[in-house]
Design a protein that fits this description.
The chain is mainly α. It is built from nine helices and no strands. The chain starts with a helix and ends with a helix.
Length: 210
């Protein structure tokens, strides 16, 4: 699974890093959308835990622990947004954001191990791209507006190692579902970034030019 993940990440890395992280309006919108999707993380994980079969007892325990660690992380994104002088109700949730997290409720109920493709995409991207994103965001928006990104740069390496250790215990048919969801999640995540840090940021640039 490591080889698979590094390969799929390499296909999206440039796209993720190339959006306009330095544009204030786009970054605020990104933080708002992050607040929305992260609000579902521990809830989805709890559903996954409840639907795992007994043979995956180790995974059941691991995801309950992970869910407790993720609980409330959306408020780190909210604080960053507010430190930039914005209010969450000024930034409604985009359809692309719902398209990112909503399928995970289906996975959680009907194919719970598949959820780990979504988790792998998020945790792995934070580990492999998080520092590079921070190097773009901190000079543009200030250290105080980077709490969410910094939190996940610090915590997610341990989570990623945990995921790969769990994957060693799954059979090939189980891993196929995880891979498929990982690829789907990368595509959906980039679509969300494109709308926030691409299109929203472009609007700011157009206004400045005018």
């Amino acid at each position: 699974m490591k080889d698979y993940f590094y390969d799929i990440f390499s296909r999206y890395e440039n796209d993720i890093l190339s959006v306009q992280w330095d544009k204030k309006e786009g970054y605020i919108d990104y933080l708002a959308q992050t607040f929305y999707y992260v609000s579902h993380s521990s809830r989805i994980m709890s559903i996954v835990a409840g639907h795992l079969p007994e043979k995956h007892e180790e995974t059941h325990k691991a995801i309950l622990k992970h869910a407790s660690e993720e609980r409330g992380h959306q408020f780190a994104a909210l604080k960053d947004l507010e430190r930039l002088g914005a209010k969450i109700d000024q930034y409604p949730e985009h359809p692309e954001t719902r398209m990112f997290w909503e399928p995970q409720y289906y996975k959680a109920q009907f194919s719970p191990l598949d959820f780990y493709g979504y988790a792998l995409m998020l945790e792995g991207t934070a580990v492999l791209a998080g520092r590079k994103i921070l190097e773009k965001v901190e000079p543009a928006h200030g250290t105080k507006a980077c709490g969410f990104l910094r939190l996940h740069c610090e915590e997610d390496p341990a989570h990623l190692d945990m995921l790969f250790n769990l994957f060693n215990k799954y059979n090939e048919s189980e891993l196929i579902g995880i891979r498929n969801n990982c690829h789907q999640s990368f595509k959906a995540y980039y679509n969300m970034l494109r709308v926030t840090l691409g299109e929203s940021a472009k609007k700011e640039g157009d206004q400045n030019a005018a």
